[in-house]
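BUG-378 | component: ligand-complex export | severity: low

The export step for adenosine-5'-triphosphate jobs runs without errors, but we want the raw record kept on the ticket for reference. Input record follows.
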Amino acid sequence: MRNLLGTAVRLAERPCPAAPPDSTIVLAALPVPVIVLDATNRLRFINHAAEQFLGASAAAAAQLGLADFLAADNPLFLLLHQVRQHGTRVADHDMALEGPRLRRISVAVQGAPLPEEAGAVVLVLHDATAARALDRQLTVRGAARSVAGMAAILAHEVKNPLSGIRGAAQLLEASVAERDRELAVLIRDEADRIRDLVDRMEPFGERPVATGAVNIHRVLEHVRRLAQSGFAGPIRFTELYDPSLPPVHGNRDQLVQVVLNLVKNAAESIAQAGVQPGEIQLITGFQHGVRLAVTGSDARRHLPLVVAVRDNGPGIADDIRPHLFDPFVSTKPAGSGLGLALVAKIVSDHGGLVEVESRPGRTEFRLMLPMVDEESRE
Ligand SMILES: Nc1ncnc2c1ncn2[C@@H]1O[C@H](COP(=O)(O)OP(=O)(O)OP(=O)(O)O)[C@@H](O)[C@H]1O
Ligand SMILES: [Mg+2]
């Protein structure tokens, strides 16, 4: 009590800061549509952006319900039902809204319960973001496909002659005079470099892989051990695991490859900038309500498992951000730029999503993956 009073007195003595703006003013100014629905899906509040989105003024909308805007079978009603039933946030990365007063538009939707009022839900819609995110997924897939084609050609047309060149250089090495030996070694080393590159492209091939229940914590532990005994020796690893996490539906070796590529990037970024002490956090968690449309069907895939790799390096360079997942994009002198392209391909083959957040001192790659039960129910 004394503490509370003390605090109040000290606050009162300070020069009075500008009063914070009323929250409805802030909501009104938000450039994203925000809609509050009551338990019967009547529109309780819409901000300016939602007025434009719905093509109705707030006053007009107050007389209307969601059913006046959307067809009765629109998936948004199901999302609202889930928010109310579970009392948690539910998100959908790609939902088509269409109905009597709305032309068809794809949005990313987030719904959250309003605890103060039974059954009320606040909806936030993102229009362009979803489209852009989806575009990105598609371009990443496209890029991975073209790399897959190239990998097949390289394996076929380059690898075989390359081993001939390498063998010939080795023979020369043994027989030429001392002054020419250096050239023979150069040929052998360069042939090895090309072979390594071709080898790194091989996983892009479209081979079928076996999938099943994968314990993601074992995958993370395996990668941590590999990293600590090799390229990430001086870096401190912290594990923030949710031990109750169910298994991922996927392929163990491919998931090792994904985490390894992320941890390697994190370690390289820390080392390059000489950050002391370097730290990599491996994080797992369960997240309700993230769903992704399954390509070519109306089904929704739930992606409740979150696996994140976070580092305290300098962050991702601004100029490569838009192309981060494209193949051959690298800022490293010896980098091939295939690490993240492969991450994107494998995660997309798993039906999952990758998100990145990066600022100096904190870069986080977040994977959202399907869990095994969910998959078998589909
Ligand atoms: N954790 C990170 N912090 C800062 N930059 C990063 C991070 N992860 C990736 N990057 C940037 O993204 C680029 C592309 O990464 P990617 O793994 O695809 O290729 P690479 O690491 O350069 O080469 P490779 O993985 O083929 O050896 C990197 O060169 C780097 O600039
Ligand atoms: Mg890399």
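Assignee comment: Attached the raw record above. The pocket of adenosine-5'-triphosphate (ligand 1) is lined by residues 261, 265-266, 269, 311, 313, 315-317, 320, 324, 329-332, 335-341, 363 (CB under 6 Å).
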